[in-house]
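queue> holo job accepted (flavin-adenine dinucleotide)
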Amino acid sequence: MGVRYSAFKDIDIAEFDAVVVGSGFAGAVTARELAERGGKKVLVIEKRSHIGGNMYDELDDAGILVHRYGPHIFHTNDKRAFDYVRRFTEWRDYQHEVLADWYGTYMPVPFNKNSMEIAFGEEKAAHLIDKLIATFGDERKVPIIELREQDDPELSEIADFVYKNVFLYYTQKQWGLTPEEVDPSVTARVPVFISRDNRYFQDAYQGMPLHGYTPLFENMLSHEGIVVCLDTEAESVFDLEFANGSEDSPLSGILIKGRRFDGPIVYTGPLDELFLSRFGRLPYRTLDFKYETHDKKHVLPCGTVNFTVTEDYTRITEFTYLTGQDSDKTTIMKEYSHAYEDPSTQIPYYAIISDENAAHYNRYRALTEPLVNFHPLGRLAEYRYYNMDVIIGRALALADELVGEGAQA
Ligand code: FAD
Ligand code: UDP
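queue> job finished
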């Protein structure tokens, strides 16, 4: 069977046991689990005109499979999450590699022993690598912030080089902030790696859905217990009830089509927008994508090139490396990052992690806490910088809770 789509106006809400807002991994995994394992009738509300959230991919005019909301590479150490997504499609093995374009010379990112030889020459690199190994150990990952704290002048030289040539300009473009100003967990995602391993991720399980992410989501949401309403925004179909009239009054109920809905409501959109941003909008970074199709097999030497010292875009991705598609044409995509200002035309891609923003988010979260059937889940609703596998793991854990079973091995 295919996905069961319906117009929201034709829905009889009394027929549903659970409502899920959003059809990215947070929403789709929860919907599937509630329907399949919990035997529930699940209504999925999605504001876009397609399912799949930010993982959505499709063929472009040249017939190249492209990702429409940023390049997505699957990698995880969570076997349960990997086994789960493997149920819904075939996968291809893919190990992502990234090169930094350093004034026209390519250097592996994360910055590693091979990058060190390109930056410092073989002889000097050999000495510096010994020093790194003596200080941190071989095959270790060292966040740039930690490397910069070292007193040793030679380690400082490496740290200064990496800071200036890999992190500073890229981070300014991506966040509008310097590496010191962003939360340390952000730059720690891409540490200095004392290794010859040029892969971007070292996770045990890595790969790409063989036919793309969209068919994976179609299979996940194809279940007789699931109905999907596209082009439907939660704010316009939920009537929120509050305990009292004050600004901080907690949510006491959600009405859908005039009826109070007491089954589980899993909400995976931005929490501030559900409350019409009454405490001010949560800050996010958004992205613009520029696509180019070229009449040749490849434009880049690998899946992604990061522009760490030049250009106003952060990175270029060439999809055929990721998807394994064989074609005489190729499509690349440039990413431009800027502040998220207009919810009607822009997409909130990255929460900006800081104590201040977490406190701001918690004000919204406090509004929902007393409503025990309301479950914020996902990168937007939890205002976190989560990768796909973490979201899948969290969705499975929430489903365990909602269908009353403990986590499975
Ligand atoms: P989303 O995928 O954003 O899904 C949320 C869904 O809810 C959307 O479909 C949205 O339209 C819908 N929605 C929102 N608000 C409402 C509303 N009010 N009413 C109805 N529907 C609503 N992770 C990796 O593991 N590997 C990668 O390589 C990777 N690359 C990334 C690249 C970029 C540029 C970005 C931004 C993220 C990347 N991620 C990657 C992270 C990945 O996108 C997230 O982990 C994943 O999308 C989270 O799933 P989600 O369901 O929480 O959110
Ligand atoms: N980063 C950088 N230079 C790079 C790669 C990453 O400065 O070449 C920093 C930058 O701040 C970025 C963060 O590390 O936002 C995390 O990078 P990652 O590739 O994980 O970002 P994502 O793929 O999530 O956009």
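queue> The first strand starts at residue 18 and ends at 21.
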